[in-house]
């Protein structure tokens, strides 16, 4: 890792050796250009961009998409229970109707 960074220079200051690589734009920056934001290194340009991105798109899409599936499963279970109860009720009726309707 150190040897990899040793050959690179800051993209903004070509005369300075880079100390870190921005994980967002994948470019190398010197100590002055890179900054730490929420526990990770990021360049000044990406820091400005990521602040807007985080506010616009919170990383919670997966949890939200799961809810309709749970509701669908619950609705199917209720529907099956109702069908089972109605079918069970209807199944008792034909026995009464069949008396006198079936020729022997
Ligand atoms: Zn960057
Ligand atoms: Zn720099």
Short description:
The protein is mainly alpha-helical and 104 residues long. The protein has helices spanning 2-6, 44-56, 61-98; strands at residues 20-21, 28-29, 34-37, 40-43.
Structural account:
This protein is mainly α. It has 2 domains: 2-56, no CATH class; 60-99. Helices cover 54% and strands 12% of the residues. The strands form 2 sheets. It has a two-stranded antiparallel sheet with strand order 1-2. A hairpin with a 6-residue loop joins strand 1 and strand 2. The protein is rod-shaped and about 105 Å long. 10% of the residues are buried. The model has no long low-confidence stretch (mean pLDDT 80). Residues 10, 12-13, 16, 29-30, 32-33 line the site of one zinc ion.
Major beta-sheet overview: 2 strands, antiparallel
Bound compounds, each kind once, are: zinc ion
Strand content: 5-15%
Q: What is the tally of helical segments? A: 3
- Residue windows where pLDDT falls under 50 for at least 5 positions: none
Terminal-residue CA separation: 93 Å
Radius of gyration (Å): 33 Å
Number of E-type strands: 4
Shape: rod-shaped
What structural class do the secondary elements suggest?
mainly alpha
Number of domains: 2
Q: What's the helical proportion of residues?
A: 40-55%
Q: Residue-averaged pLDDT, rounded?
A: 80
**Main β-sheet, spatial strand arrangement:** 1-2
Which H/E pattern describes the elements?
HEEEEHH
